[in-house]
Automatic annotation (TrEMBL):
It is found in: Cytoplasm. Belongs to the peptidase T1B family. It comes from Nocardioides vastitatis. This is Proteasome subunit beta. Pathway: Protein degradation; proteasomal Pup-dependent pathway.
Amino acid sequence: MNDARIPGAFLRPGTSSFSDFIAENAPDLLPARRSLPAGSAAELAPHGTTIVAATFPGGLVMAGDRRATMGNVIAQRDIEKVFPADEYSVVGIAGTAGLAVEMVRLFQVELEHYEKIEGSILSLDGKANRLSALIRANLGMAMQGLAVVPMFAGYDLERGIGRIFGYDVTGGRHEEAAFFTVGSGSLFARGALKKLYREDLSQDDAVRVCLQALYDAADDDSATGGPDLTRRIFPVVWVVTDDGAVRLDELRIGELANQVVGARMLRPDGPVAELPGGENTGEDLRA
């Protein structure tokens, strides 16, 4: 007769961290514990870029393009790079796509495990710290070219605002006050956000600004995919407020993407930012 009892490790009181539990009882299941041959493996796996995020009064928007590349080849045109972490937070992935998706799944379980063990939601700073630990554990992979550098953002229930966190490959975290970008197209997207972002953006305008930033990234970075009107492939956009994290409907994003592309037919370089003094030099931000 087979012994079907649950192993004792699952019955003993322990840590509220799921990743710590796995590291103690089944470390071979963690993505970062896999062994690789010597040398760089960067060109062997698809990479995903670009993620942008921006806050607005009462919440934040995070959006990601849909392209994954492997060297100079488009490996996938419709990859998803922005995921819900829990009810009030989202995480976007940049870097090695396969490892990044595994890290996101582990992070999702980590937050759910904490909530079930402790009976309460982890604070936003606590969530950011947990993700930092997961990234740090992947440092060995990063040294062999398989880096994962996500972006984390969520609604702070205690402070009543949206907050954005960025990371480096060592797990070091920093908070961005208004907007942030990661990925190979991040420099171009950040330049667009610098010109278009305002502290008093509405939710709808924050979404439009993020879409404009992704378009600018795709315009100058070959690894970032712009709106694909032929295949109807559009950026993934999540909005997080005190009502929770909600993914915007594909039809709505398609409408906004068509507006952005249509306006670029008239002005390829995009909408004009306001000059000091409040006078706009031409095209409205909403174009």
